[in-house]
User: What shape does this take?
Amino acid sequence: MAAYMSASRLEHAFSTNDFVPEWAQEEVSTGTTIMAVEFNGGVVIGADSRTTTGAYIANRVTDKLTPIHDHIFCCRSGSAADTQAVADAVTYQLGFHSIELDEPPLVETAANLFKQMCYRYREELMAGIIVAGWDKRKGGQVYTVPMGGMIVRQPVSVGGSGSSYIYGFMDSNYKPGMTKEECLHFCTQALALAMERDGSSGGVARLAAITEEGLERRVVLGNQLPKFSNA
Amino acid sequence: MALSNVLETPASGFNFENVSRNVALDGLLEGGHTKAPKPMKTGTTIAGVVCKDGVVLGADTRATSGEVVADKMCAKIHYISPNMYCCGAGTAADTEKTTDLLSSNLTIFSMTSGRNPRVVMAVNILQDMLFRYKGQIGASLILGGVDCTGNHLYTVGPYGSIDNVPYLAMGSGDLAALGILEDRFKPNMELEEAKELVRDAIHSGIMSDLGSGNNIDICVITKQGVDYIRPYQESEYKDKRQRRYKYRPGTTSILTEKIVPLELEVVQETVQRMHTA
Assistant: This one.
Protein backbone atom coordinates (compact mmCIF):
# COMPACT_ATOMS: atom_id res chain seq x y z
CA MET A 1 0.00 0.00 0.00
CA ALA A 2 1.02 3.65 -0.13
CA ALA A 3 4.16 3.73 1.97
CA TYR A 4 3.87 6.81 4.15
CA MET A 5 3.53 7.56 7.86
CA SER A 6 0.66 9.79 8.92
CA ALA A 7 2.31 10.82 12.20
CA SER A 8 3.58 14.14 10.93
CA ARG A 9 0.41 15.04 9.04
CA LEU A 10 -2.21 17.38 10.47
CA GLU A 11 -5.61 15.92 11.33
CA HIS A 12 -7.77 16.47 8.30
CA ALA A 13 -11.03 18.16 9.23
CA PHE A 14 -12.39 17.18 5.86
CA SER A 15 -11.98 13.45 6.06
CA THR A 16 -14.57 13.00 8.82
CA ASN A 17 -17.20 12.81 6.11
CA ASP A 18 -20.03 10.37 6.82
CA PHE A 19 -20.56 9.43 3.22
CA VAL A 20 -17.02 8.87 2.00
CA PRO A 21 -16.04 5.28 2.86
CA GLU A 22 -13.08 4.73 5.20
CA TRP A 23 -10.91 3.32 2.46
CA ALA A 24 -11.17 6.44 0.31
CA GLN A 25 -10.58 9.06 2.97
CA GLU A 26 -6.84 9.55 2.77
CA GLU A 27 -5.09 12.34 0.98
CA VAL A 28 -4.41 11.95 -2.72
CA SER A 29 -1.07 10.15 -3.03
CA THR A 30 1.02 9.15 -6.00
CA GLY A 31 1.96 5.84 -4.32
CA THR A 32 4.05 5.04 -7.27
CA THR A 33 6.99 3.68 -9.19
CA ILE A 34 9.36 6.16 -10.81
CA MET A 35 12.80 5.70 -12.28
CA ALA A 36 15.50 7.40 -14.30
CA VAL A 37 18.57 6.11 -16.15
CA GLU A 38 21.53 8.00 -17.60
CA PHE A 39 23.01 7.06 -20.95
CA ASN A 40 25.63 8.65 -23.14
CA GLY A 41 23.84 11.64 -24.62
CA GLY A 42 20.83 11.91 -22.35
CA VAL A 43 18.48 10.29 -19.85
CA VAL A 44 15.47 8.00 -19.94
CA ILE A 45 12.77 8.51 -17.33
CA GLY A 46 9.73 6.41 -16.57
CA ALA A 47 6.74 6.26 -14.26
CA ASP A 48 3.48 4.38 -13.76
CA SER A 49 0.17 6.26 -14.00
CA ARG A 50 -1.77 5.53 -10.82
CA THR A 51 -2.90 8.16 -8.25
CA THR A 52 -4.71 6.85 -5.20
CA THR A 53 -6.89 8.26 -2.40
CA GLY A 54 -6.59 5.47 0.11
CA ALA A 55 -7.66 2.35 -1.80
CA TYR A 56 -9.53 4.22 -4.55
CA ILE A 57 -7.72 5.07 -7.76
CA ALA A 58 -8.46 8.74 -8.27
CA ASN A 59 -6.69 8.96 -11.63
CA ARG A 60 -5.56 5.93 -13.63
CA VAL A 61 -3.86 7.90 -16.40
CA THR A 62 -1.73 10.34 -14.39
CA ASP A 63 1.34 11.90 -15.93
CA LYS A 64 4.00 11.90 -13.24
CA LEU A 65 6.77 13.06 -15.56
CA THR A 66 6.62 16.82 -15.18
CA PRO A 67 8.64 19.21 -17.34
CA ILE A 68 10.65 21.73 -15.35
CA HIS A 69 12.45 23.20 -18.31
CA ASP A 70 13.06 22.31 -21.97
CA HIS A 71 15.60 19.59 -21.18
CA ILE A 72 14.90 18.93 -17.51
CA PHE A 73 12.13 16.76 -16.11
CA CYS A 74 11.16 15.57 -12.67
CA CYS A 75 9.45 12.35 -11.63
CA ARG A 76 7.03 12.86 -8.73
CA SER A 77 6.20 10.46 -5.92
CA GLY A 78 4.49 11.06 -2.57
CA SER A 79 1.62 13.43 -1.98
CA ALA A 80 0.12 14.65 -5.25
CA ALA A 81 -0.65 18.11 -3.89
CA ASP A 82 2.80 18.60 -2.35
CA THR A 83 4.73 17.44 -5.41
CA GLN A 84 2.62 19.50 -7.80
CA ALA A 85 3.14 22.59 -5.66
CA VAL A 86 6.90 22.06 -5.31
CA ALA A 87 7.29 21.32 -9.02
CA ASP A 88 5.37 24.50 -9.90
CA ALA A 89 7.53 26.59 -7.56
CA VAL A 90 10.79 25.14 -8.92
CA THR A 91 9.60 25.59 -12.53
CA TYR A 92 9.11 29.27 -11.81
CA GLN A 93 12.43 29.68 -10.01
CA LEU A 94 14.36 27.83 -12.71
CA GLY A 95 12.68 29.75 -15.53
CA PHE A 96 13.54 33.03 -13.86
CA HIS A 97 17.11 31.90 -13.28
CA SER A 98 17.47 30.81 -16.90
CA ILE A 99 16.20 34.17 -18.19
CA GLU A 100 18.61 36.01 -15.90
CA LEU A 101 21.55 33.97 -17.18
CA ASP A 102 20.30 33.99 -20.78
CA GLU A 103 21.35 30.35 -20.93
CA PRO A 104 19.66 26.96 -20.52
CA PRO A 105 19.82 25.93 -16.84
CA LEU A 106 21.90 23.05 -15.48
CA VAL A 107 20.25 19.86 -14.22
CA GLU A 108 22.29 20.22 -11.03
CA THR A 109 20.72 23.64 -10.44
CA ALA A 110 17.22 22.26 -10.82
CA ALA A 111 18.01 19.37 -8.49
CA ASN A 112 19.40 21.74 -5.87
CA LEU A 113 16.32 23.96 -6.07
CA PHE A 114 14.21 20.89 -5.34
CA LYS A 115 16.53 19.93 -2.51
CA GLN A 116 16.36 23.37 -0.91
CA MET A 117 12.58 23.34 -0.89
CA CYS A 118 12.24 19.71 0.20
CA TYR A 119 14.80 20.10 2.99
CA ARG A 120 13.49 23.40 4.35
CA TYR A 121 9.94 22.15 4.50
CA ARG A 122 10.80 18.54 5.27
CA GLU A 123 8.33 18.31 8.19
CA GLU A 124 5.38 19.58 6.17
CA LEU A 125 6.04 18.00 2.80
CA MET A 126 5.78 14.43 1.64
CA ALA A 127 7.65 14.41 -1.64
CA GLY A 128 10.15 12.01 -3.19
CA ILE A 129 11.45 13.40 -6.45
CA ILE A 130 13.86 12.26 -9.14
CA VAL A 131 15.27 15.10 -11.27
CA ALA A 132 16.69 14.10 -14.65
CA GLY A 133 17.71 15.92 -17.80
CA TRP A 134 20.40 16.92 -20.22
CA ASP A 135 22.65 19.95 -20.20
CA LYS A 136 25.67 21.02 -22.20
CA ARG A 137 28.17 20.75 -19.36
CA LYS A 138 27.71 17.21 -18.07
CA GLY A 139 25.31 15.62 -20.58
CA GLY A 140 22.64 13.31 -19.18
CA GLN A 141 22.31 13.40 -15.38
CA VAL A 142 20.00 11.84 -12.79
CA TYR A 143 19.71 13.30 -9.29
CA THR A 144 17.51 11.79 -6.63
CA VAL A 145 15.90 13.95 -3.91
CA PRO A 146 14.09 11.53 -1.59
CA MET A 147 11.87 12.47 1.39
CA GLY A 148 13.88 14.46 3.90
CA GLY A 149 15.73 16.50 1.30
CA MET A 150 18.94 14.64 0.51
CA ILE A 151 20.48 15.03 -2.94
CA VAL A 152 22.73 12.53 -4.65
CA ARG A 153 23.63 11.92 -8.29
CA GLN A 154 23.21 8.33 -9.47
CA PRO A 155 23.52 6.71 -12.90
CA VAL A 156 20.24 4.91 -12.28
CA SER A 157 17.64 5.63 -9.65
CA VAL A 158 14.24 4.24 -8.67
CA GLY A 159 11.70 5.74 -6.31
CA GLY A 160 8.20 5.47 -4.91
CA SER A 161 6.43 2.65 -3.12
CA GLY A 162 6.98 0.22 -6.01
CA SER A 163 10.71 0.76 -6.06
CA SER A 164 11.27 -1.73 -3.22
CA TYR A 165 10.31 -4.57 -5.57
CA ILE A 166 12.76 -3.73 -8.33
CA TYR A 167 16.04 -2.95 -6.58
CA GLY A 168 17.21 -6.49 -7.32
CA PHE A 169 16.21 -6.25 -10.98
CA MET A 170 17.88 -2.86 -11.26
CA ASP A 171 21.13 -3.96 -9.64
CA SER A 172 21.44 -7.07 -11.76
CA ASN A 173 20.28 -5.71 -15.11
CA TYR A 174 21.76 -2.22 -15.27
CA LYS A 175 24.96 -2.00 -17.26
CA PRO A 176 26.84 1.24 -17.84
CA GLY A 177 27.14 2.22 -21.50
CA MET A 178 23.64 1.20 -22.64
CA THR A 179 22.08 2.89 -25.67
CA LYS A 180 18.85 4.88 -25.59
CA GLU A 181 16.77 1.95 -26.83
CA GLU A 182 18.33 -0.40 -24.32
CA CYS A 183 17.56 2.06 -21.54
CA LEU A 184 13.95 2.38 -22.68
CA HIS A 185 13.62 -1.40 -22.72
CA PHE A 186 15.23 -1.65 -19.26
CA CYS A 187 12.83 0.96 -17.84
CA THR A 188 9.77 -0.70 -19.40
CA GLN A 189 10.68 -4.03 -17.85
CA ALA A 190 11.43 -2.54 -14.44
CA LEU A 191 8.16 -0.60 -14.37
CA ALA A 192 6.20 -3.66 -15.49
CA LEU A 193 7.67 -5.73 -12.66
CA ALA A 194 6.94 -3.07 -10.06
CA MET A 195 3.40 -2.48 -11.33
CA GLU A 196 2.77 -6.21 -11.13
CA ARG A 197 3.71 -6.43 -7.45
CA ASP A 198 2.87 -3.03 -5.94
CA GLY A 199 -0.79 -2.27 -5.35
CA SER A 200 -0.22 1.48 -5.49
CA SER A 201 1.38 1.34 -8.96
CA GLY A 202 -0.39 0.47 -12.15
CA GLY A 203 -2.17 1.75 -15.22
CA VAL A 204 0.11 2.56 -18.14
CA ALA A 205 3.86 2.98 -18.22
CA ARG A 206 4.93 6.45 -19.29
CA LEU A 207 8.46 6.87 -20.61
CA ALA A 208 10.44 9.80 -21.92
CA ALA A 209 13.90 10.16 -23.43
CA ILE A 210 15.63 13.53 -23.08
CA THR A 211 18.60 14.29 -25.31
CA GLU A 212 20.23 17.36 -26.82
CA GLU A 213 17.73 17.19 -29.70
CA GLY A 214 14.82 17.35 -27.33
CA LEU A 215 12.14 15.15 -25.90
CA GLU A 216 10.61 11.87 -27.02
CA ARG A 217 7.63 10.52 -25.07
CA ARG A 218 6.23 7.01 -25.14
CA VAL A 219 3.29 5.27 -23.53
CA VAL A 220 3.11 1.52 -23.03
CA LEU A 221 -0.49 0.49 -22.42
CA GLY A 222 -1.37 -1.97 -19.67
CA ASN A 223 -1.96 -4.93 -21.95
CA GLN A 224 1.25 -4.29 -23.89
CA LEU A 225 3.54 -4.42 -20.86
CA PRO A 226 6.07 -7.26 -20.86
CA LYS A 227 4.91 -10.36 -18.98
CA PHE A 228 7.36 -12.24 -16.86
CA SER A 229 5.40 -15.18 -15.55
CA ASN A 230 2.34 -17.12 -16.57
CA ALA A 231 1.19 -17.55 -12.99
CA MET B 1 -18.59 50.72 24.80
CA ALA B 2 -17.15 53.42 22.57
CA LEU B 3 -15.45 52.13 19.38
CA SER B 4 -13.42 54.28 17.03
CA ASN B 5 -14.75 52.37 14.04
CA VAL B 6 -17.76 50.14 14.20
CA LEU B 7 -16.98 48.07 11.14
CA GLU B 8 -13.48 46.62 11.05
CA THR B 9 -12.20 45.87 7.56
CA PRO B 10 -11.29 42.19 7.73
CA ALA B 11 -7.85 41.00 6.68
CA SER B 12 -8.12 39.28 3.31
CA GLY B 13 -8.90 35.60 3.06
CA PHE B 14 -10.53 33.34 5.62
CA ASN B 15 -10.85 34.03 9.32
CA PHE B 16 -10.61 30.98 11.58
CA GLU B 17 -11.26 32.85 14.87
CA ASN B 18 -14.51 31.06 15.47
CA VAL B 19 -12.91 27.63 15.32
CA SER B 20 -11.73 27.79 18.95
CA ARG B 21 -15.11 29.17 20.00
CA ASN B 22 -16.85 26.25 18.28
CA VAL B 23 -14.57 23.74 19.95
CA ALA B 24 -15.38 25.28 23.35
CA LEU B 25 -19.11 25.28 22.58
CA ASP B 26 -18.94 21.66 21.51
CA GLY B 27 -17.56 20.78 24.92
CA LEU B 28 -20.43 22.61 26.66
CA LEU B 29 -23.15 21.18 24.45
CA GLU B 30 -22.03 17.55 24.62
CA GLY B 31 -22.78 17.49 28.34
CA GLY B 32 -26.31 18.82 27.84
CA HIS B 33 -29.22 17.53 25.82
CA THR B 34 -28.55 19.54 22.67
CA LYS B 35 -25.95 18.62 20.10
CA ALA B 36 -24.08 21.06 17.89
CA PRO B 37 -25.49 20.97 14.35
CA LYS B 38 -23.35 19.01 11.91
CA PRO B 39 -22.00 21.14 9.06
CA MET B 40 -24.00 20.92 5.91
CA LYS B 41 -22.23 18.64 3.48
CA THR B 42 -23.05 18.02 -0.13
CA GLY B 43 -22.70 14.21 0.19
CA THR B 44 -23.07 14.23 -3.47
CA THR B 45 -22.67 12.94 -6.99
CA ILE B 46 -21.10 15.31 -9.49
CA ALA B 47 -19.77 14.42 -12.92
CA GLY B 48 -18.27 16.06 -15.96
CA VAL B 49 -17.59 14.96 -19.53
CA VAL B 50 -15.67 16.61 -22.36
CA CYS B 51 -17.46 16.19 -25.68
CA LYS B 52 -16.87 17.36 -29.23
CA ASP B 53 -18.50 20.77 -28.90
CA GLY B 54 -17.89 21.58 -25.27
CA VAL B 55 -18.16 20.36 -21.70
CA VAL B 56 -21.18 18.86 -19.92
CA LEU B 57 -21.37 19.06 -16.11
CA GLY B 58 -23.96 17.34 -13.96
CA ALA B 59 -24.89 17.21 -10.29
CA ASP B 60 -27.62 15.95 -7.96
CA THR B 61 -29.40 18.44 -5.68
CA ARG B 62 -29.34 16.95 -2.17
CA ALA B 63 -27.51 18.62 0.72
CA THR B 64 -27.34 16.70 4.00
CA SER B 65 -26.69 17.76 7.57
CA GLY B 66 -25.87 14.52 9.36
CA GLU B 67 -28.72 12.12 8.49
CA VAL B 68 -31.23 14.83 7.59
CA VAL B 69 -31.68 16.25 4.10
CA ALA B 70 -31.07 19.94 4.71
CA ASP B 71 -31.73 21.17 1.18
CA LYS B 72 -33.66 19.26 -1.49
CA MET B 73 -32.91 21.70 -4.29
CA CYS B 74 -29.32 22.68 -3.61
CA ALA B 75 -27.41 24.25 -6.50
CA LYS B 76 -24.08 22.47 -6.76
CA ILE B 77 -23.02 23.82 -10.14
CA HIS B 78 -21.54 27.22 -9.39
CA TYR B 79 -20.96 30.06 -11.82
CA ILE B 80 -17.32 31.03 -12.23
CA SER B 81 -17.30 33.06 -15.42
CA PRO B 82 -19.43 33.19 -18.60
CA ASN B 83 -17.41 30.31 -20.02
CA MET B 84 -16.71 28.27 -16.86
CA TYR B 85 -18.77 26.46 -14.27
CA CYS B 86 -17.65 24.48 -11.25
CA CYS B 87 -19.34 21.57 -9.46
CA GLY B 88 -18.53 21.26 -5.77
CA ALA B 89 -18.55 18.27 -3.41
CA GLY B 90 -17.63 18.28 0.27
CA THR B 91 -18.60 20.86 2.87
CA ALA B 92 -21.29 23.05 1.29
CA ALA B 93 -20.05 26.30 2.80
CA ASP B 94 -16.48 25.66 1.66
CA THR B 95 -17.43 24.92 -1.94
CA GLU B 96 -19.75 27.97 -2.07
CA LYS B 97 -17.20 30.42 -0.72
CA THR B 98 -14.26 29.01 -2.64
CA THR B 99 -16.09 29.24 -5.96
CA ASP B 100 -17.41 32.71 -5.08
CA LEU B 101 -13.91 33.96 -4.33
CA LEU B 102 -12.61 32.44 -7.54
CA SER B 103 -15.39 34.02 -9.58
CA SER B 104 -14.75 37.46 -8.09
CA ASN B 105 -11.02 37.25 -8.68
CA LEU B 106 -11.51 36.15 -12.27
CA THR B 107 -13.97 38.98 -12.95
CA ILE B 108 -11.47 41.52 -11.66
CA PHE B 109 -8.75 39.91 -13.73
CA SER B 110 -10.77 40.00 -16.93
CA MET B 111 -11.62 43.64 -16.36
CA THR B 112 -8.06 44.74 -15.72
CA SER B 113 -6.43 42.64 -18.43
CA GLY B 114 -9.17 42.81 -21.03
CA ARG B 115 -8.94 39.07 -21.58
CA ASN B 116 -11.41 36.27 -21.08
CA PRO B 117 -10.16 34.05 -18.27
CA ARG B 118 -8.83 30.64 -19.24
CA VAL B 119 -9.69 27.41 -17.47
CA VAL B 120 -6.03 26.72 -16.55
CA MET B 121 -5.91 30.04 -14.74
CA ALA B 122 -8.97 29.24 -12.66
CA VAL B 123 -7.53 25.83 -11.83
CA ASN B 124 -4.20 27.31 -10.77
CA ILE B 125 -5.89 29.85 -8.51
CA LEU B 126 -7.96 27.11 -6.88
CA GLN B 127 -4.93 24.89 -6.45
CA ASP B 128 -2.91 27.72 -4.87
CA MET B 129 -5.63 28.50 -2.38
CA LEU B 130 -6.50 24.96 -1.37
CA PHE B 131 -2.84 23.98 -0.98
CA ARG B 132 -2.24 27.01 1.22
CA TYR B 133 -4.99 25.86 3.61
CA LYS B 134 -3.53 22.37 3.77
CA GLY B 135 -6.80 20.48 3.40
CA GLN B 136 -8.70 22.41 6.09
CA ILE B 137 -11.05 23.65 3.36
CA GLY B 138 -13.14 20.60 2.52
CA ALA B 139 -13.85 21.27 -1.14
CA SER B 140 -13.54 18.73 -3.98
CA LEU B 141 -14.26 20.60 -7.17
CA ILE B 142 -14.84 19.71 -10.79
CA LEU B 143 -14.11 22.70 -12.99
CA GLY B 144 -15.19 22.65 -16.62
CA GLY B 145 -15.06 25.32 -19.28
CA VAL B 146 -14.49 26.32 -22.85
CA ASP B 147 -11.91 28.89 -23.81
CA CYS B 148 -9.76 29.86 -26.78
CA THR B 149 -7.49 26.85 -26.18
CA GLY B 150 -10.29 24.27 -26.23
CA ASN B 151 -12.66 22.35 -23.96
CA HIS B 152 -11.24 21.50 -20.56
CA LEU B 153 -12.23 19.51 -17.50
CA TYR B 154 -10.19 19.54 -14.29
CA THR B 155 -10.62 18.25 -10.79
CA VAL B 156 -9.10 19.97 -7.75
CA GLY B 157 -8.80 17.99 -4.49
CA PRO B 158 -9.07 19.48 -1.00
CA TYR B 159 -5.30 19.31 -0.51
CA GLY B 160 -4.60 21.12 -3.74
CA SER B 161 -3.87 18.37 -6.25
CA ILE B 162 -5.20 18.69 -9.79
CA ASP B 163 -6.00 16.15 -12.49
CA ASN B 164 -6.83 16.91 -16.11
CA VAL B 165 -8.98 14.14 -17.57
CA PRO B 166 -11.72 13.81 -20.23
CA TYR B 167 -14.37 12.49 -17.80
CA LEU B 168 -14.76 12.68 -14.04
CA ALA B 169 -17.00 11.96 -11.12
CA MET B 170 -16.58 13.16 -7.52
CA GLY B 171 -18.47 13.06 -4.26
CA SER B 172 -19.83 10.18 -2.23
CA GLY B 173 -21.62 8.74 -5.26
CA ASP B 174 -18.56 8.90 -7.48
CA LEU B 175 -17.98 5.17 -7.70
CA ALA B 176 -21.45 4.50 -9.06
CA ALA B 177 -21.23 7.38 -11.53
CA LEU B 178 -17.74 6.42 -12.64
CA GLY B 179 -18.96 2.91 -13.46
CA ILE B 180 -21.37 4.36 -16.01
CA LEU B 181 -18.76 6.77 -17.36
CA GLU B 182 -16.04 4.11 -17.72
CA ASP B 183 -18.44 1.89 -19.60
CA ARG B 184 -19.90 4.36 -22.08
CA PHE B 185 -17.51 7.26 -22.48
CA LYS B 186 -16.07 7.78 -25.97
CA PRO B 187 -13.85 10.68 -27.00
CA ASN B 188 -15.52 13.39 -29.16
CA MET B 189 -19.11 12.47 -28.37
CA GLU B 190 -22.06 14.44 -29.71
CA LEU B 191 -23.66 16.90 -27.30
CA GLU B 192 -26.94 15.02 -26.84
CA GLU B 193 -25.14 11.76 -26.21
CA ALA B 194 -22.88 13.44 -23.66
CA LYS B 195 -25.88 14.95 -21.84
CA GLU B 196 -27.55 11.55 -21.64
CA LEU B 197 -24.33 9.97 -20.37
CA VAL B 198 -23.93 12.54 -17.61
CA ARG B 199 -27.60 12.22 -16.68
CA ASP B 200 -27.23 8.46 -16.42
CA ALA B 201 -24.08 8.79 -14.35
CA ILE B 202 -25.75 11.14 -11.84
CA HIS B 203 -28.83 8.94 -11.80
CA SER B 204 -26.76 5.92 -10.89
CA GLY B 205 -25.12 7.95 -8.12
CA ILE B 206 -28.55 8.95 -6.80
CA MET B 207 -29.80 5.35 -6.86
CA SER B 208 -26.76 3.80 -5.20
CA ASP B 209 -25.70 6.47 -2.70
CA LEU B 210 -27.62 7.70 0.31
CA GLY B 211 -25.93 11.08 0.28
CA SER B 212 -27.18 11.88 -3.24
CA GLY B 213 -30.74 12.32 -4.34
CA ASN B 214 -33.61 14.47 -5.53
CA ASN B 215 -33.22 16.19 -8.88
CA ILE B 216 -30.50 16.26 -11.53
CA ASP B 217 -28.97 19.53 -12.77
CA ILE B 218 -27.10 19.67 -16.06
CA CYS B 219 -24.90 22.47 -17.33
CA VAL B 220 -23.77 22.50 -20.95
CA ILE B 221 -20.91 24.83 -21.83
CA THR B 222 -20.08 25.41 -25.50
CA LYS B 223 -18.35 28.12 -27.47
CA GLN B 224 -21.76 29.60 -28.25
CA GLY B 225 -22.72 29.91 -24.61
CA VAL B 226 -24.02 28.14 -21.54
CA ASP B 227 -27.21 26.15 -21.09
CA TYR B 228 -27.84 25.69 -17.36
CA ILE B 229 -30.77 23.27 -17.14
CA ARG B 230 -32.03 23.21 -13.60
CA PRO B 231 -33.60 20.76 -13.08
CA TYR B 232 -32.81 18.57 -16.07
CA GLN B 233 -34.81 15.81 -14.53
CA GLU B 234 -37.01 15.85 -11.46
CA SER B 235 -37.04 13.07 -8.93
CA GLU B 236 -39.84 10.47 -9.26
CA TYR B 237 -40.15 10.42 -5.48
CA LYS B 238 -41.45 13.96 -4.98
CA ASP B 239 -43.82 14.57 -2.08
CA LYS B 240 -47.27 15.95 -2.56
CA ARG B 241 -48.26 18.32 0.22
CA GLN B 242 -51.26 16.96 2.11
CA ARG B 243 -52.84 20.36 2.91
CA ARG B 244 -52.45 24.01 2.08
CA TYR B 245 -50.30 25.58 4.77
CA LYS B 246 -50.85 29.20 3.74
CA TYR B 247 -53.64 31.12 5.51
CA ARG B 248 -55.83 33.41 3.50
CA PRO B 249 -56.05 37.04 4.66
CA GLY B 250 -58.84 37.44 7.21
CA THR B 251 -58.26 34.10 8.97
CA THR B 252 -57.35 35.95 12.16
CA SER B 253 -60.13 38.37 13.05
CA ILE B 254 -59.20 41.88 14.18
CA LEU B 255 -60.94 42.85 17.45
CA THR B 256 -59.72 46.42 18.03
CA GLU B 257 -57.51 48.88 16.22
CA LYS B 258 -55.60 51.81 17.80
CA ILE B 259 -53.43 54.28 15.86
CA VAL B 260 -50.83 56.33 17.80
CA PRO B 261 -48.98 58.95 15.77
CA LEU B 262 -45.29 59.39 16.71
CA GLU B 263 -44.50 63.03 17.38
CA LEU B 264 -41.12 63.74 15.87
CA GLU B 265 -39.31 67.04 15.77
CA VAL B 266 -36.63 67.82 13.18
CA VAL B 267 -33.56 68.70 15.28
CA GLN B 268 -30.83 68.91 12.65
CA GLU B 269 -30.67 68.67 8.89
CA THR B 270 -27.44 68.20 6.92
CA VAL B 271 -27.12 67.84 3.18
CA GLN B 272 -24.08 65.99 1.80
CA ARG B 273 -23.44 66.21 -1.89
CA MET B 274 -22.36 62.95 -3.56
CA HIS B 275 -20.40 63.01 -6.79
CA THR B 276 -22.10 60.38 -8.83
CA ALA B 277 -20.78 61.33 -12.21
Summary: DSSP finds five helices and 13 strands in chain B. The CA atoms of residues 153 and 252 of chain B lie 56 Å apart. The radius of gyration of chain B is 24 Å. The helical segments of chain B are 17-31, 92-113, 119-132, 174-184, 191-208.
